[in-house]
# Entry
Amino acid sequence: MEILSKISEAVLDGDTKNIISYCQAAVENEIPAGDILKKGLIAGMNEVGVLFKEGEMFVPEVLVSAKALQLGVDALSHYLKEEGVDVIGKIVTVTVEGDLHDIGIKLVGIMLEGAGFEVINLGVDKKATEIIAKIKELKPDILAMSAMLTTTMGKMEEVISLLREERLSEHLKIMVGGAPLSPVYAERIGANFSPDASSAVDVAKKLLNVA
# Structure
């Protein structure tokens, strides 16, 4: 439908001015909120992900698109709850202890939210014990950790070791990413490697067996 295309384009263009009215118009046209979310908002964010991956969109533009997406989701939240629309899965994102970089993990979160995941960002410089406590509290499907320094990479292994000790790793998928990491390192510590924010969506979906 034309209004769904407008919503997708509004996300792609970062049109924060009109996204809410477009979503409201779609609701008034009796389009299910789940369809507005998936075929409008998420479809637009998926296109953002493709363009970002291809180097045709950059971080500032992605952040504006993410703002438009969030405004649209907020406008639909009441209707989504009424329809009982479920999220794909719950993902906790975090930058490990000693590391203050957050742009990368924020982009990952934006892409994951745009794909329909519930994302909870714990922030930066988080100790392994803090992360474990949050995993126990929130019970996510996936833990996504970021490290942008070679000196903080080892903290990921520390978290995974604690998860195993606490027997939390049996039902928890683990993703890792960051400039100094490699697929070989991720495999060695028992995690799944994501080279960038766009790829994180594919990795997460594969881990949870969703299309």
The CA atoms of residues 42 and 114 lie 5 Å apart. The chain has a mean pLDDT of 92.
